[in-house]
Design a protein that fits this description.
There is one protein chain. This protein is an alpha+beta fold. 65% of the residues lie in helices and 14% in strands. It has ten helices and six strands. The protein has a four-stranded antiparallel β-sheet, with no helix packed on it. Strands 1-4 form a two-stranded parallel sheet. Helix 3 (52-62) packs across helix 5 (131-197) and helix 9 runs antiparallel to helix 10. InterPro entries: OMP_efflux (IPR003423), TolC-like (IPR051906). It holds the Pfam family OEP. Keywords: Cell outer membrane, Membrane, Transmembrane, Transmembrane beta strand, Transport.
């Protein structure tokens, strides 16, 4: 028994004809009817037509990887603050209790005292070799890096969704081709049985038609499996139940004004992976500036305002405190710290050189990526044009062969060969169409033409 995995009203007659002409018993035909009814209700009740833009919009809102990427981007942006770079003063409320015990050897006595204080303390670094300036610049670069990394990840998810969408569209087309092939084979089997009943065909013709119909039935079942797998893959990327029923648009429109030069120019300005290499060079430059600041003196200021009280003996008390204000200016010049500053400076310089080398390599790889993807895109369009012409030829050949077969002037082998050529041509043009579109989407990502909305 054979039954396609997805049923609709257009398939009802085809399946029943196939069942009748395959010699099924009445109870098995009744079972087929029940399965068809269940499948038809399920398809009609919950299927939705989903466009690519709608699929991307759902993924942008619900895909967990995109949500995590946006969260990491916000973390990187939140770190861009002058306070994190030490460019703002620190203000603290300080309370202390100190006990002092001194011995007077001449008087053979001990003097004990306790000082209790509570003060507001402000500290600020006036100059540290511009280390805080470079630190702030590094934070800003890190913020841009976070945004670019999030953009790169989101674009990859959009590409994955687009690929899953068009794989589903291809699976839909392949299922349609398989259904049509099964319909043709069932009609051929029906005619062979009628011819046999009227003595116009031998049993060999009926057996040959039966074998081909069974083969097409198996192909239809396999296409149904691939259809369902493709649908589940798309639903998984959209972060919704994988059993959600939906259909996709099978028409494809190509961008008319895309050129290789435009893609390469846009890639240098917007391609996230290349921009990350550029920002990494700036990051290394700021790291070098921070390392150099260790060789400069540090000038800091501290101001205190508060109350203190000193009592004899061990006593913590603030019943009669004295009010006071103090300020200090400190300069620290590092003379020797075990060559740590020198080693850090050398390593920062090497890291800068490495990042510059990686940027040069990224520029070369970007040109290669654009060239390879562009050539693959143009080649896929040429293949699509060739497959379109091949389909027209296959359809014409099948129509003429079918006419001759009906008149008894074409053999089973000739008819089946024409049918297989038609099936192959229909399958090939569907795959070629979606393959070309996927190459176009990859070019759009490289060229920075994918628009990412903020959430």
């Amino acid at each position: 028994m054979s039954l396609p995995f997805l049923c609709d009203n257009n398939l009802f007659v085809m399946i029943m004809n196939h069942a009748m002409h395959s010699g099924f018993q009445p109870q098995r035909i009744l079972l087929l009817l029940l399965l068809i009814m269940m499948c038809s209700v399920r398809t009609a009740s919950a299927s939705e037509l989903l466009s690519l833009d709608e699929a991307i919009s759902i993924a942008m809102e619900h895909n967990p990887d995109i949500r995590v990427a946006r969260g990491e981007e916000r973390i990187a942006r939140n770190k861009v603050n002058i306070g994190n770079a030490g460019l703002l003063p620190s203000i603290d409320l300080v309370g202390s209790v100190s006990y002092q015990n001194t011995e007077d050897a001449q008087l053979s006595s001990m003097d004990e005292s306790t000082t209790t204080s509570a003060k507001l303390q402000a500290s600020y670094t006036l100059f540290d070799g511009f280390g805080n300036i470079y630190t702030f610049r590094k934070l800003k670069t890190a913020g841009r890096l976070g945004s670019l990394q999030a953009k790169n990840r989101i674009e990859q998810i959009i590409l994955d969704v687009s690929e899953a969408y068009y794989r589903f569209a291809d699976a839909t087309a392949q299922l349609d081709v398989a259904r049509k092939a099964l319909s043709i084979s069932d009609e051929r089997l029906r005619r062979a049985r009628l011819r046999s009943e009227y003595g116009q065909a031998n049993s060999l013709e009926v057996l040959s038609a039966t074998v081909d119909a069974n083969a097409d039935s198996v192909a239809s079942m396999q296409a149904g499996l691939e259809y369902n797998a493709a649908r589940r893959s798309l639903n998984l990327l959209l972060h919704r139940p994988v059993s959600t029923l939906c259909s996709v648009e099978t028409d494809v429109q190509f961008v008319p004004d895309m050129t290789r030069e435009r893609v390469l120019e846009g890639a240098r300005q917007s391609f996230a992976e290349y921009r990350i290499a550029e920002e990494s060079v700036r990051q290394a430059q700021h790291e070098l500036g921070i390392a150099r600041s260790d060789f400069f003196p540090e000038i800091s200021m501290q101001a205190n305002y508060g109350y203190s009280q000193t009592d004899p003996g061990l006593m913590v008390d603030m019943d009669d405190p004295s009010e006071g204000f103090s300020a200090s200016l400190t300069m620290t010049l590092p003379l020797f710290n075990g060559f740590r500053s020198s080693i850090a400076h050398q390593n920062a310089r090497i890291a800068l050189q490495n990042s510059q080398v990686r940027l040069e390599q990224a520029a070369i790889e970007l040109e290669g990526l654009v060239g390879d993807t562009w050539d693959a895109y143009r080649n896929s369009l040429d293949i699509l044009d060739f497959q379109q012409k091949n389909l027209e030829t296959a359809e014409l050949n099948f129509r003429r062969t079918n006419e001759l077969y009906v008149l008894g002037q074409a053999t089973n082998t000739t008819f089946r060969e024409a049918q297989l050529n038609l099936i192959s041509a229909r399958q090939a043009i569907a795959s070629a169409r979606y393959e070309a579109k996927l190459f176009e989407i990859r070019l759009m990502r490289i060229g920075g033409f994918l628009v990412i909305s903020e959430k």
